[in-house]
Amino acid sequence: MTLPATREAVFSAEGDDALFRKQIAALFANSAFYREKLAAAGFDIAQTVGGIADIAALPFTEKEELRQTGDETYPIGTRLAAPMSEIARVFSTSGTAGTPSYIPLTAEDLDDWVIVSTRSFGATGVREGDRIVSAYSAGPFVAGVALEAFVRLGLCDIPVGTGNTERLMAAVKLLKPSTLALTPSYALHLAEWGEARGMDLPGSSVQRILVAGEPGGGEPELRVPLEAAWGAKVTEAMGIGDNGVSVWGECEAQRGMHFSGSGYVHFELIDSESDAVLPLEEGAEGEMVYTHLRQHAAPLLRFRSRDHVRVSMGVWRPLK
Question: In this structure, which topology does domain 6-263+290-312 adopt according to CATH?
Answer without folding.
Answer: Rossmann fold (3.40.50)
